[in-house]
Write a structure and sequence with these properties.
Blueprint lengths: L1 H10 L5 H41 L3 E4 L3 H7 L4 E12 L2 E8 L8 E5 L4 E3 L1 H4 L7 E9 L5 E15 L4 H4 L2 E5 L8 E7 L13 E2 H4 L1 H38 L2 H9 L4 H42 L9 H35 L2
Parallel strand pairs: 3-8, 5-7
Antiparallel strand pairs: 1-9, 1-10, 2-3, 2-6, 2-9, 4-7, 6-7
Helix pairs in contact: 1-9, 2-7, 2-9, 7-10, 8-10, 9-10
Length: about 350
């Protein structure tokens, strides 16, 4: 009885309720879709970048020295590999050289050639002579035991890329671990889980520490994102209050009619609250479906700007929180506005 009455007051053609309810539902749908897309894009930019950093540049845990065999015994389920790293100049260009072997799993994607010699990215390749040969200047241990600059002629054997793009590819080059000069620092990487606290005796360092400046900047960016979302939620609450006010004002005649017929106050308020909730839930459903449809073109547009794969997903936790938030504020404002409308309708009925 109450539900059928609520549905009638939501979509009845009398008093143009149907058109107004549809406009109200579309307003809610646009708000839901906009917030979900904003959250999805922000999370993709933040989490995607952190994942790329952990996969390519700064791994979950870095241990100084070559301890790959020991760590593999401790964590057989994690990826463990060793590599050397040094700063160098290649044809006058400052780079970082990583000396790797076949166990290295740092997200290197070979575009051409192999890893038997110097492996560079396209940006670095363009700065080298057309012959593909270059002079590599780096520090190595001399006869006296001191680190001295030494120059070696190397030939490009392959071209690579990574998910980080120019941020990594324009700075790093790779060479075989067998060609690493004496004295170059060795590191052991652990991927899959941060175990730095468990390997403190080895001097292990978490990726959060090695990328502390960037990590702090990203956390600040995330805080700003939450502040923006908080402001959006306030705007949505103000808009919801205004929508509920209009909703009840347009139904003052129906409220007065039910009062004359002697309907109980509780049942009357419940029927109009359910009437608004039907419209609200319809708007939430349409907003969710719209967000799902728009995420694919939004991801394609993001790829065209960032030039890397950016898959967008519906933030289900955010959707649930936003939906519950709308339902709660709808309940609060409906009670307040329903009482106010009831008093004004009572005055119209009694002529007071």
């Amino acid at each position: 009885m109450i539900f059928s009455l609520a549905f009638r007051y939501s979509f009845s053609s009398t008093g143009r309720h149907r058109a107004r309810s549809i406009r109200l539902a579309l307003t809610v749908a646009v708000s839901i879709a906009a917030v979900l897309i904003v959250i999805s894009v922000m999370e993709a930019l933040q989490e995607g970048r952190l994942e790329r950093i952990r996969a390519v540049r700064s791994f979950d845990t870095i241990v100084p020295g070559n301890h790959a065999d020991e760590i593999r015994e401790l964590y057989p389920d994690l990826e463990v590999f060793s590599y050397g790293e040094a700063e160098a100049l290649i044809s006058g260009r400052a780079v970082r050289v990583r000396f790797i072997d076949e166990d290295y799993d740092g997200g290197v994607i070979m575009l051409q050639g192999n890893q038997e010699g110097l492996v560079v990215s396209y940006p670095v390749m363009l700065s080298l002579p057309e012959s593909g040969s270059a002079s590599l200047l780096l520090l190595s241990k001399g006869r006296s035991g001191r680190m001295l600059p030494s120059s070696v002629d190397v030939s490009v054997s392959g071209i690579f890329t990574t998910a980080m793009g120019r941020e990594f590819d324009g700075i790093y080059v790779f060479m075989p671990l067998s060609a690493m000069p004496e004295g170059v620092s060795m590191h052991t990487a652990v991927k899959g889980r941060d175990v730095s606290s468990e390997l403190q005796m080895m001097g292990a360092e978490s990726w959060k520490k090695s990328e502390s400046a960037l990590y702090s900047a990203l956390m600040l960016e995330k805080l700003m994102m939450y502040m923006v979302l908080f402001l959006l939620f306030i705007i949505i609450a103000v808009s919801m209050k205004q929508m509920i006010r209009i909703f009840y004002r347009e139904r003052r005649a129906e409220i007065a009619e039910l009062m004359i017929l002697g309907m109980e106050r509780g049942r009357m308020h419940l029927s109009f609250f359910l009437s608004f909730m039907i419209v609200l839930i319809l708007g939430i459903a349409v907003g969710y479906l719209s967000a799902r449809l728009l995420l694919s073109p939004a991801g394609i547009y993001l790829d065209s700007i960032l030039h890397r794969g950016s898959e967008l997903f519906i933030p289900y936790n955010g959707f649930i929180v936003l939906s519950l938030y709308l339902i709660v504020i709808a309940l609060v404002f409906s009670i307040l506005e329903g009482r106010k409308t009831e008093r004004s309708s009572f005055k119209e009925v009694t002529g007071e």
